Amino acid sequence: MEAVLALAIGALTGSGVWLLLRPRTFQVIMGLSLLSYAVNLFIFSMGRLGLAVGQEPVIQPGQPMDLAHYSDPLPQALVLTAIVIGFAMTALFLVVLLASRGVSGTDHVDGADAHDRQEMP
Hints:
It contains four helices and no strands. By secondary structure, it is an all-alpha fold.
């Protein structure tokens, strides 16, 4: 299970970085989203010593009632907060993208198409 999660985090991080390096604004926004998903998965996976399927998240029957047998709720709260903030930032980025495209007429990050760059001296 840990290998699958590590591969998923690596794939999301690699795809996010690749999209961040693209020239179009929408691709940059999608890259930021994928990168934030990868960070959220990484933080969430650090919440327990090992990933387990089918176990209780907080109290396990038959275990002593001390802090060593509880799941840490802080990473879960951090990820939930990061998801909400990431959604709001993505909405803000999309509004800025649409306004920028309306003003400049292009969606390139530097504001110029490849055709415009060839005509410049």
